């Protein structure tokens, strides 16, 4: 039973990490957007064009989404591994101790 508790704790730690991931995502979007807006405005003035700021904002937006998708996939894979380990541990416990039905997932 200790293994199940450890794995559930590990899962909970990853859930807490989701808050920090949300904050991280905010920075993933904010920092490139601010840099692109500032740089684009300077390029617009320097070269006398009107589209540099828009182009840099678009590129920063696309790159931010690519980084965010990578971060999401990383967290999802980690959660799937932990959930599978919990499932296997519960199955092992229920086989060795049939009286511990409360540890298994409820059947609909």
SSE string, helices as H and strands as E:
HH
Separation of termini?
A: 24 Å
Task: Output the radius of gyration.
Answer: 23 Å
Q: What structural class do the secondary elements suggest?
A: mainly alpha
Low-confidence stretches: none
User: Based on DSSP secondary structure assignment, what is the total number of beta strands?
Assistant: 0
Tally of individual domains: 1
Which strand-content bin applies to the residues? Answer: under 5%
Helix segment tally = 2
Gross morphology is rod-shaped
Helix content: over 70%
- Mean pLDDT across all residues, rounded? 84
Question: Could you describe the largest sheet, including whether it forms a barrel?
Answer: none
Question: Could you please describe the fold and organization of this structure?
Answer:
The chain is mostly helical. It has one domain. Helices cover 84% and strands 0% of the residues. It has helices at 2-47, 52-96. Helix 1 packs antiparallel against helix 2 (52-96). It is rod-shaped and about 75 Å long. The protein starts with a helix and ends in a 12-residue tail after the last helix. The relative contact order is 0.13.
Strand-helix topology:
Blueprint: H1 2-47, H2 52-96
Helix pairs in contact: 1-2
Defining key terms:
mainly alpha, 2 helices, rod-shaped, 108 residues
Overview in brief:
By secondary structure, the chain is mainly alpha-helical. Helix content is 84%, strand content 0%. The chain has one domain.
């Amino acid at each position: 039973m200790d293994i199940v508790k450890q794995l559930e704790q590990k899962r909970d730690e990853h859930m807490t990490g989701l808050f920090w991931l949300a904050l991280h995502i905010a920075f993933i979007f904010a920092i490139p957007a601010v840099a692109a807006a500032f740089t684009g405005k300077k390029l617009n003035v320097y070269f006398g064009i009107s589209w540099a700021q828009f182009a840099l904002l678009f590129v920063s937006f696309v790159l931010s989404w690519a980084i965010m998708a990578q971060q999401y996939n990383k967290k999802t894979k980690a959660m799937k591994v932990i959930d599978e380990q919990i499932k296997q541990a519960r199955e092992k416990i229920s086989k060795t101790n049939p009286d511990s039905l409360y540890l298994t997932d409820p059947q609909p």
